[in-house]
Structure formats: C-alpha cells, structure tokens
Amino acid sequence: MELRVNGELRRFDAPVGRSLAEVLRADLGLPGTKIACFEGHCGACTVLLDGVPTLSCITLVHTVEEREVTTIEGLRDHPLVDAFVREDAMQCGFCTPGQIVSGAALVAANPEPTRDEIRHAMAGNLCRCGAYRNIEEAVSTWRD
Amino acid sequence: MARLIKTEKEVEGQYSETWVVVEEDVLDQWPEGPRGIVGQPAAKVDGYERARGEARYTADVQLPGMLHAAVLRSPYAHARVRHIDVAKALDAPGVRGVLLPERAEAPPTHARAAIESDPGAIGRALAERARVAPLTTEPGYPGHAVAAVAAETLGQAEAALDLLEVDWEPLEPLLDADEAVSRGSLVSEERTYERGDFERGLAEADVVVEAEYRTQAVLHNSLETHQAVCEWHGEGELDVYVSTQFIWGVRQRVAERFELPPDKVRVVCEYMGGGFGSKNGPGDYTLIAAELARITGRPVKCALSRRDENRATGNRNATIQRLVGGARADGTLTALGGEFVNAVGWDGFSASTAGPMQMLYACQNVRTVENGAKLNTPPNAAFRAPGFVEGTFGLECLIDELAAKLDLDPLELRRRNHAESDPVNERDYSSKNLEECYRRAEQHWARRDEVRARSDGPWRYGVGLASQIWYGAGGPPSYAWIRVGADARVTVVTAMQDIGTGTRTAMAQIAAEELGVPLEWVQVSLGDSARGPFASISAGSSTTPSMGPAVRAAASDVKRQLLEIAAQRHGVDLSTLTLVDGKIVAGGEREWPLSELTELLGDGQILGKGARGPNPTGMRALTFGVQVAEVAVDVETGEVVVERVAAIHDVGRIVNPLGARSQVEGGIVQAIGHTLSEQRLLDPSTGAILTPTLDAYKLPTIADVPEIVTEFVDVPDPHLTNLGSKGLGEPPIIPTAAAIANAIRDATGADVRSVPVTREEMLTALARARERREETVGAPSA
To answer: B779 burial class (0-12, 13-18, 19+ CB within 10 angstroms)?
Structure first.
C-alpha cells in the first residue's frame, strides 16, 4: 500500500491488522514514534494525520491510506524542539516525540495558547518522569 | 603509587565494606558557589537526540534476522502447572523456538517428529529445555513466567502462546500481609532495632499518639517497558541490548547464568526510557531472550507489554505501619516506636520502612520491628527511595499529629528534635544543612494564614510540611577515561547509563569545568560495557556522587599532561599555566589556543583516567530537605488538589541547576501520583491485578501539576570526594506525601493516614474528624 509520510510517498506491504505505529517504526525506518502502551492510553505514539494528533498505535494502517502522516521526524526543525531542549522539558525522553507532536498540533491551531489550553491539549501525553512543568513552559514559549 | 584501602559503601540504605584502589593525589574541592560551567544551568547535551526521536532506545533495536519472544505468564496468583502440550504451538506459523520450565513433561510424540525433521531451531529448543531461563512450574504470583516462544513476528509469538495447552492446578493464594506475618511467611528474618528504653520514654511523655498508617502498592510504569535484545556470536559471546539502570550488574548476572567469562558478555544501553529502580537487574526477559537466541541461533527481542509490565516487573510494595510517638510538653520526643509490615510479594526485599524513624530525629528511645511478608503477589522492586517514601509518610504524619496534641508549631517541633549527629551510631555527619532548609522553609510556611483565608464554601485550604532524610553519597568503584585529539575536542568514555536524569550533561559539565574548555567541546560516550570502564549503578541517588569525581579526576589527569606539554612548547614555567575557556593561559599575560598545541599531536591522543575515591571514614553522608505543600480540599466531594509545593533540599554541590530542578519537579509529580491517585488494585480473592493498563492505573497528567518552587542549599559536602556532591534522584519524592497529608489536616482537621487519598479515603477521614468533634462537644461538661 501507499502512504504519504512527512511529505514523501512511501510504498510497503502490510498485513491486515497492522498498526500505523508498527509500520512507521519497523517498516519505514521511523523509530521516533514510540510505543509505550500499545492501547491508546499514553500518547507516546502520537502522530499527525492531516494535521490532527492521532494515536498511531491504535490506528490500523489500512484505514489511513492516501492521508498525510507527519511524525516527529517530519518536525525535527520545528521551534518546539528547541523549546523542549531549552526548557529541559524531558528526562528519559521516551514520551518526548509524542509530546512535541501534540504540541505542534496545538500551536498550529492556536499559536498563543493559554496555560489552561496547553494543559487541556497535552493531558493525553503521559510523562512518567514528570517533566510536565517544563513541557508546559516549552509549549508556552515555543516561539522564543 | 597505588594504595589499597577499605571504604564503606551504601546502596539504597544497605551498607557494605569495599576495597578501593586509590592512585591519584586527591584533588581539592572547588570553592563553594557556582563556577563557569559547574553550577550553571545547562540544557541536556543529548536533548536534541531525545526530542527529535533520534535517540536509540532498546525498544528501537532491530537486528537482521531478529525474532520476537512472547512469554506465557501465569494468570493465577498461585498454581501448579501439571502439563504443557506444545504440539499446536510448535506447528504455528513462524515459531522458531519454545522454552518450557525445566520440570515440564517431555513433548508429545509428533513434536519429537518435528524435532527430527527440523533439527535446527525448534529441535534444540525442546531437546535442551530452558537451561537457564527463569521459568517455573509453580507460579507464585500472577505474571510469573511459565513458558516462552520465539517467532518471526511478535504477533506470531503471541498467537503461539495461545496454542500452548496448559493444565493448571490453581492453588489458594496468600494475599494478606498481616496474615502472612502471623503465619511466618516472610521474605527475610524479622528486623528489630532498639536504642534507649522505649517503655521508659513513653512513660515520660506528656502526650502520646498511637496511629496506624498505610501505604499502597504503586507501579513504576516506565514508559519504555522492560526489554532486551540478545544476540550470540558463536557459543561463547553474547551481546545484550537492554533497558537497564546497571550495565555492569546485568553483565555479571548474565555471565553467571550462562557460565561465561564476564568479558564475553557485552551489555549496551545508550538511552533508556525510565527505570525508577525497577531496572537494576536483568529480569526474566533478558535471560529468556538470551536463551531463546542461543537455541534458535538468531537474535531475539523480548519486550514486555504494558499489561505484563504491570504484573511482572516489580512495584513499590504496600506497607502497614503501627506507630507510637511520645513527647514532653516542650516538644522533646521521648519515644518513637513502630511495627512495620512490608507486603513484599513473592520475592524481592524488605526495604527499610523504619529508617526515617530511626534516623531523622534525636529521640533517645526508639524501638522498631520490621517484617517483609512473602505473598502471592508480584515481587517488589526498588522504587525511588524504597522504604523511606513509605516510612516518611507514617513518621512525618505522626509528628504532626503530636504537634497538634501539643499545640506546638510543626516546624518548631521538628527544630527542637534536630539531630546533631547520627542518632543510630552517633557518627558525625559529613555535612548537614537541614536547619538551613528549615530556615528557608519559613517564608513558605508563613503563607499559611493567607492560604487558609482562601477557604470558601466547601473548599478548605491548608499548608503542611515534612522533612526528608535519605542516603545519596554514592561510592567506589567507578572509573572514567578521557581522550583529547588533535582538534582539542574531549571525549569522556565510561560504561555507565543515563536513565534520563541528565547524567551525560552533568559529566560533560564536570569535565569541561576541570579542563577549562567550553562545554560544547566535550562529548560523553557511555552505554556500552565493551567500550568503557566500570561505572556505578544508576540507583540510590548515587550516579553523580559516584561518577562525577571519577570524571573530574580523569579531566585533571588530562589537564596536567596538556599543561606540561604547553610549558615545554612555549618555554614557560609550568606553575604559571592554566587552561581557561579552551586557551592555555600563562600567568594571565600570554595565551595560546589549546588547539595550537593539540594540532601537534596528529593522530596522537592525550589520554587520562580517573577513579572514584573512598567515602569519608567514620562519617555518615546523607541528604536532607523539607517540603511545604499547600492544598485545597472539597469537604463535600472529597476532592483534593495540591496547589503549591516548595521544596528545599540539601544535597551538596549542585552540578546542573536546570537538571536538578527537573529532578525535584519530577519527584514531586510522582509523589503527588503516589499520594492522590496511583494504586495497584488486586482482586482480594484471586490476587488478579485489576490495574495493569495506563487507563486503569492513574498516573498524574500535566493537568495535575501544582506550582513547584525548588531551592537548594548548594553547599559542597567538605568531606565527600573531590566534588562535594550528593545524589538528588530520590530525595524530592520522600517528604511530599506527608506534607500533603499534613496540609489536609491543616485545611480540614481530618487525619488522613492512608494513601492514596482517594475521595473515599478523604470523606472517611472527614467523617472520623466530625465524630471526634461531636464527641468532644457532646461530652458531659466537666
């Protein structure tokens, strides 16, 4: 099947039932998207589907054909990346790509989010290290 | 000359003596205060790799020909496996190897035929059995590994597990910790401790509080689950890629298990997605992957699902603490006593829940009894200050309940019982600035009138505080090598791991500071036992105090060589030379870029080495702190909101204030989870774990984070290493629960003695407080 990933048309075979996250990580060489729960509870696997944050671990790859997928690899030069590093908005970093993808969707739709809007939009991205305060700061100051 | 000396080493509160070889002259500590690089906030040197998803975690390791393992874990808390029929699993698509417990029955005839027709993978798997994999026929907890399958894909392996036909004999599980103790089902012998005369101390008390406190089992839930990829090179060499907090510990344990010389086992962990104490050893998954790799001749990945993660990889065990405290009217503690039950589980260790009661205050009469219950529940594992998180909740709530009875200010009560030397063994502290922490806490404590005044309608506001004591000195051995090439760039090489605490960054800062070069010139190469020397476990708040001094010593070795060469090259007196910001400086007058000197090297390198020296003899090196929490409680619904936490900690010199603040915030966020929402629930009759998912198990989210104010005393410990730094990973999670509970009492008058403070728990505590008030009011007048 075919998929547009980070602006590039990618061709691959995938058995029915394979998740978008597995295809990205194992078949397309894009391991930046992490799988931490594999059942849509933690947000680590968040990618953008036509700009909308989506849990790729519970998205069957055959349901997204012909749609535009953006992963962390497609956002490597996003100002949020600098903001996350500057604000120390990560510890182990395993949730960080998903956090940045969610943050990117938020600031694209709402370039000046309030603290409450950030908390609302990012509440689905768990960080067990508890870097939340710095994550909030990074999203809040993403254009600095 | 090398000197062999004996020193004391502590990991997670367990002391041992160890020999250490000391070669270098001891470096003087840097003077107190921030320096050019050490003490300045630094963004993570590997931040971009992590943020861009380029960091390679164990989860990202894909080797050519790699198989995937799935593990059959017992659905029962206690059972016997009578028989496993593997025939259907063996015939399943993609299956390349099956591991069964040593005592399982032989495979059926047609499986033997399959072995003969395919003497490769599956044949050897069945013929040799699980030689070393930790599989059992008598599972003692839900999640205990029974069998494992390796297949071409994870889906195939999981499908094959379903085809294993297991004849289970469920057995009665033992789930109640008190019952286990009374039956003598213990993981280790009862620990008793007494100093002074507890009964006399109690008799001398003007007020006594007796209360039972309970803490729940909580789950680590590192976002990268426990996992390993193993690949053999011939029969005698094994590569292990593993998400671990202790590369060298995994190397040792795997080598022992497979009877290999340790240097034939290479352990790699460049990035790992959280551990919090649960990834200190190889676990069953590493040994299963290694054994399946051995019998299939293919690399094998064994990664736990989230649900298995929450059954089989450890937890902070629940505790029951029956405490008594007595004090004179002036606040002097006359007696502290406790009976502690750790609900340890099937295996694991009984952590020092009594430690804070023994160590925190100068009370002369203390008696504690600790038991670790062996139960049909998953084994515990170290979780960020094991024992002290739980024990501090009990003790520091008890102290506040005493303060209430004494009508004394809780901060003042703590000050009056400040310990000037270690009350357990009367040793001097290598450094202690707890009183300075108390002094700095005053401004946060002073907010309580203003905070209480916010109470409105059902919402009540209050402030509480609690003290923190913990270890964190680290110890030898740990080593670092440093090389400098012709481009004057510096590489620190050590086979340690960075579990997310910013270890690479702190080590780069220390090397850059000592060498006098910009931070950007330094890179840190870690995470591979084949590439660098031994390094400490990343646990017990020991990484920076164990590794940092070794890195500084190595940098000093390199600096000495560079300056000696510079003196010869430029014909100047060595004693006038120093390195500043990448330049050789002679007496403040002449300077040359370092690269001018190193260019002469061509392919040559300057090599330095450094080792962690001994801990101070006869002293106690500990960490201290205090936290002040502000809460709001809805007395109608039982909702508790933590609004603000101020944390003041004394951990010696701070290397990276930015990373240190992040550690404190992370510890407090985890502690808020422990205090308000997190709880591993078991079915009380079967022992089944009811909260194995991140949907059922309530981790804090970004919406739960209060305002957090972090302060450090930041005074180097003058007796501890060339750095004066202690560890910070664990201290910030220790006092938070008690500070919150004490703030709840301040807000509502209710004693919460059990965490998590669910709405049910809060409403029950409020009802108890109401009854008590009514009794007092309704009592016959005197």
So the answer is: exposed
CB contact under 8 A, A130 and B668: yes
Residue B83 has pLDDT above 50, yes or no: yes
- Alpha-carbon torsion B716, B717, B718, B723, what sign? negative
Question: Does residue A120 belong to the interface with chain B, where contact is any CB pair within 8 Å?
Answer: yes
Strand order in the sheet with B606-611: B522-525, B490-493, B479-484, B606-611
Instruction: Please write the tens of the pLDDT for every residue from B563-597.
Output: 999 999 999 999 999 999 999 999 878 999 999 99
Of the candidates B481, B476, B613, B504, the one whose C-alpha atom is nearest the C-alpha of residue B554 is: B481
Of B502, B661, B693, nearest to A39 by CB-CB distance is B693
Closest Cα in chain A to B657: A88
Domain B61-171+221-312 has CATH 3.30.365.10: yes
Q: Under a CB-based contact definition with an 8 Å cutoff, are residues B535 and B478 in contact?
A: yes
Return d(Cα B705, Cα B711) in angstroms, integer: 18
**Per the omega criterion (within 30 degrees of 0), is the bond before B75 cis?**
no
Sort out which chain B residues have CB atoms less than 8 A from A122's CB and list them.
Answer: 702
Three-class SS of residue B75? coil
**Distance (Å, rounded) from C-alpha B180 to C-alpha B443?**
46
Under a CB-based contact definition with an 8 Å cutoff, are residues B235 and B128 in contact?
A: no
- CATH architecture designation of domain A75-140: Orthogonal Bundle (1.10)
Beta strands in B234-380 (DSSP E): 237-242, 265-268, 300-303, 318-327, 333-345, 366-374
A90 has a chain B CB within 8 A of its CB: yes
Interchain CB contacts (distance < 8 Å): A and B: 164
Query: What digits encode the pLDDT tens for the residues B464-502?
Result: 999 999 999 999 999 999 999 999 999 999 999 999 999
- The helix (H) or strand (E) run that includes residue B70 is strand B67-73
pLDDT for res B120: 38
Comparing CA positions, the residue from B733, B226, B663, B527 lying closest to residue A90 is B663
Write down the pLDDT at residue B63.
97
Domain covering B3-59+474-611, topology: Aldehyde Oxidoreductase; domain 4 (3.30.365)
Q: Over pLDDT 90: what percentage of chain B? A: 88
Encoded tokens for B9 = 């080493």
Task: Choose which CATH entry (3.40.50.10260, 3.30.930.10, 3.10.20.30, 3.40.640.10) describes domain A2-74.
Answer: 3.10.20.30
Residue in the structure block whose two tokens are 């049910």: B760
3-state secondary structure B207-227: EEEEEEEEECCECCCCCCCCE
- What is the number of alpha carbons within 13 Å of residue B210 lying toward its C-beta? 3
Cα separation, B712 vs B408, in Å, equals: 27
C-beta atoms of B665 and A133 within 8 A? yes
Nearest Cα to B583, choosing from B518, B523, B524, B519? B518
Q: Domain map of chain B by residue range?
A: 3-59+474-611, 61-171+221-312, 427-473+615-782
Which residues does chain A have within 8 Å of residue B269's beta carbon, measured at their own beta carbons? Answer: none
R_g of chain A computed on alpha carbons? 15
| CA atoms lying within 13 Å on the CB side of residue B555 | 30
Q: What is the ipTM of this complex?
A: 0.98
The CATH fold assigned to B427-473+615-782 is: Aldehyde Oxidoreductase; domain 4 (3.30.365)
Token pair in block for residue B48:
């971009």
CA separation, residue B68 to residues B157, B266, B281, B555 (Å) = 7, 20, 21, 43
Is there a contact between B208 and B239 (Cβ–Cβ < 8 Å)? no
Please state the pTM of the whole predicted model: 0.95
SS3 B78: coil
